[in-house]
Structures are given as structure tokens and as C-alpha cells.
Amino acid sequence: MTVAPTATLILGNIDEAGDYTVVRGFDTADNVFGNGWRGGWIGDKLYALAQDGTGINWELELHNDASRVWVSAILNDVLSMYPDIAVPNIANDELRHAQKDAFTYGVLRRKDLSAAEKTAIVNSAANISFAGGTLSVGFNDLTTALDSVENQVSMKGESFTEEGLMRDWPHGNNLWIDLISEKQKYKRFAATGIGKAGYKTGAFSFTLGFDDKMTVTSIVGAASSFNRGSQDSTGDLSKTKNKYNSYGIHAYGAYSPSSNLNVVGTLTYLRSSSDITQYINAAGFGNADADVKTNLLAAGIRVETTLKARSSSVVPHAGIPYVYAKSGKYDTKVDGKKIWSNKTKANHAIQFPTGVALRGDIATGNGWNICPQADLTFIPQAGSSNQRTTLTDVNGISDRISGEFAGNFGTNVNLGVQADKGGAPLGFLYGFTGGSKGKADHTLRLEAHWRF
Question: Domain Autotransporter spans what residues (predicted)?
């Protein structure tokens, strides 16, 4: 078999990697000598059109045996055309095997979208838990509840006198509730294949607790918390909404032998549930969904003292809370069909809140004690601040991604007032937390107590 040396062979409309026969049934024995081939053309001008839709080129190699000449075609790495795609292993597998019912294949083969648009769709779906702020809202719910718990036995609050001594009441019982409204946002998170993203959140929560003054110097209590909120993504993501809630149980205690020392300890378990919907509305797809459950454990200690300053009390304080967070396995579905299973790694974080509170005590003529307070706290954080996830498709092909969920520093300011008369204190507080990654958190807290 002889072909002109100047011949050109162009393969068109190749869908998947494999062998493509040029000729079959010919006796090519005379064309072979030693390890070489003679017959004119040796495949110097062998081409294939880029894969339809994706624009990815092929690697081609000419082969022959005793009766056949064929071309082996392997699709170039998806990163050659889509360098920022978050799931290259999964994409390569789907494209090279022409898995027409697969999500990534379906997006990348679209001709009506640019490479950047297709990359953004795939990356947003791959990072659906990050886009929904799963760990961020879980950490925030935990922090909100712990603030309520710690405030119950802090020297800056109504459980202590202005001299920094534990207050006495008839039987030492204290039933309390905090009602909390909160708005939060982050602006500058990044994830695998996502340059800049954030979210806005609105939430309502309450924390209900009971404690008992066990001795002259100690208080022990327990509380439960519930939070419900809604989160919307911002930045370089497909529009994503997370309707979430959390339930928590908390144990706490305080030991204060004198006005010079108050030691507060807390132990918490919180479970957060995120119902995430991502609105793709492109490439022939509607919505992506994920239902993510996250367990959080926290243990902390806080130390504070009271310093008198004329008619006010100054309460320096420092603490070390440790937080463990782990999301369970979950599936990513598109239009109701499972496309990936997801497995996350645990996160460990340690905070070092250090600050000072200022407290005033004003006795009115009709028996009320008014206690205005202000607190400034700096909160550095160490540990893991990236949500790490392994995605696996139906063929067992995996990719690893990660996304930020917290910054490494924050500043918290709280302003409020408590009013106490006859064993039923009331309080109203406003809090603001600003920090790295564009964090801005506004909190309104209404608290009520019944001592008996």
C-alpha cells in the first residue's frame, strides 16, 4: 500500500478517545521492513479537528499491523483549554469517554458559551458547599450562642455586682433567654477556581438557659440554642442560596473566689443543617442542590478580673476557645440527578479573644439598677480556615478542592444596657464584628432573666 508522501489525513467529529481505522483488509507485510514502514506517507500531516464544543485538540499517533492502518486519538488535557477548571480529573474522564449524560461533559460541549462561562458554571457547582457558606454560618451560629452563654456569668453583666463579686439571690436559680437578630457578610473569600466570592446572611436565633449558684463562688448552668437564617452568595459564583438552621446544647460554669478573678468554662455541641440551591440556568441545566450537615464541638476557657475606676468598673478579659467542625458526606445533584459525592476533612480552629469591658452602675430612686456596658475585643484565630473537599463522580474519578470560610483576625465591639429590679433583669445590646476577608457582622440582642 503506497500513499503519496505529501498526503494529508484529517479526522473530523471525533467524540471520544480511541482507535480510528484508516484502512482494513490490506496485506501490509510488504510495507514493513525491520522496525520501519515504507510506502510513502508516514503520517507527517495527520490532523484532527478539535473536539466539537470544547475546542480541545487531540494527540494523534499512526499505527499499523499485518492488515490494518489506524490512528490512536487521545484528547489533550482539559487544562489546555480550561486552565482554571476546578475538577480536571473528572472533566478529562467524562470528555475522553464521551459521557453524554454527565454534567461536566454537558457544560463543556456547549457552543453558545465561552470558555470562561463554562468554567464558572462547573466551578460554582463543584464548590456548592463553599458557595452556600456551610462552615461560615455554622461557626457564626456557634459564636453567637457562646456569646450569650458567656455573658450570663461574666463580671461585666448582672450576675456580678459593681465590685466584681457574684450577686446573691434567694435560691440561686436563674432562668434566662436571649433573642437575637443578625446580619452578616463576607466579601473576599477564595476557593479552587473561584477568584473572589462572599455572601450576605440574615438570621434570627434564641438561646434559652438555666443556671444555679451552687456555692458562694460558683455557678453551673446549661442552655440550648436555635438559629434559622438565609444566605445569598456574592462574587464570582452562580447565584446560590442557603436556607439553614442549627441546634446547640451548651454547658457552662463560673468560679470566682474574689473580685480579682472569674474563670468561665464552656462546652458546646452544635449541629448545623444547610439546604443549598444553586441557580445555574445555563447550558441546558436548571439548579444544583446539596443538603449538608455539619457537626461542631467547642470547648473554651475565659479569665477576667474587675478593676474599680471611680464610678465605673473595668473588666479585662482573655480566653481560648477551641472549635472542631466536620461536615458529613453529601451529594451534589443537578436537576435531581446525582453528579458527585463529596467527602470533607475536619477543621480545627483556636481563637485568642482578648479585650476590655467597661461597666457602669446607676441606682435610680424607684429601685432600678441601670448597668450600661461597652466591650472591645480583639480576636486572632489560628488553625485551618479552608474547607477541604474531595469530589468523586459515578465512575470513581476524584478531584480535591478547597475554599475559605473564615479570616484570621476580627475585632468585636458591644454596646448595651441592662436594667434590674426585683429579680427580673432585662437587657438590650448591639454588637459589631469586623475582620479580615471583608467580614462585617451586626447583632441585636434582647435578653431577659427570672431569678428565683
Answer: 168-452
HSE toward the beta carbon, residue 275, CA cutoff 13 A: 7
Nearest CA to 108 out of 283, 281, 278 is that of: 283
Does the pLDDT value for residue 43 go beyond 80? Answer: no
CB 408 within 8 A of CB 152: no
User: What Rg value do the Cα atoms of the chain yield, rounded?
Assistant: 32
pLDDT in tens, 70-128: 899 999 999 999 999 999 999 999 999 889 899 999 999 999 999 999 999 999 999 99
Q: What is the pTM of this model?
A: 0.88
Question: CB of 87 within 8 A of CB of 391?
Answer: yes
What is the mean predicted confidence (pLDDT) over 25-38? Answer: 71
- Partners of 326 in beta bridges: 295
User: Does the CA dihedral 75-80-85-87 come out positive or negative?
Assistant: positive
3-state secondary structure the chain: CCECCCCCEEECCCCCCEEEEEEECCCCHHHEECCEECCECCCCCEEECCCCCCCCCEEEEEEECCCEEEEEEEECCHHHCCCCCCCHHHHHHHHHCCCCCCHHHHHHCCCCCCHHHHHHHHHHHHCHHHHCCHHHHHHHHHHHHHHHHHHHCCCCCCCECCCCCECCCCCCEEEEEEEEEEEEEEEEEEECCEEEEEEEEEEEEEEEEEEEEEECCEEEEEEEEEEEEEEEEEECCCCEEEEEEEEEEEEEEEEEEECCEEEEEEEEEEEEEEEEEEEEEECCEEEEEEEEEEEEEEEEEEEECCEEECCEEEEEEEEEEEEEEEECCEEEEECCEEEEEEEECCEEEEECCEEEEEEECEECCCCCEEEEEEEEEEEEEEECCEEEEEEECCCCCEEEEEEECCCCEEEEEEEEEEEECCCCCEEEEEEEEEEHHHEEEEEEEEEEEEEC
Q: CB count, 10 Å around CB of 112?
A: 10
Q: Kindly state which CATH superfamily the domain 123-451 is placed in.
A: Autotransporter beta-domain (2.40.128.130)
Angle at 286 between CA 283 and CA 291, to 5 degrees: 125
Name the residue ranges covered by the structural domains of the chain: 9-76, 123-451
Q: What is the Cα–Cα distance from 183 to 300, expressed in whole angstroms?
A: 25
Count Cα atoms within 13 angstroms, Cβ side, for 122. Answer: 33
Look up residue 260 and give its three cell numbers.
480579682
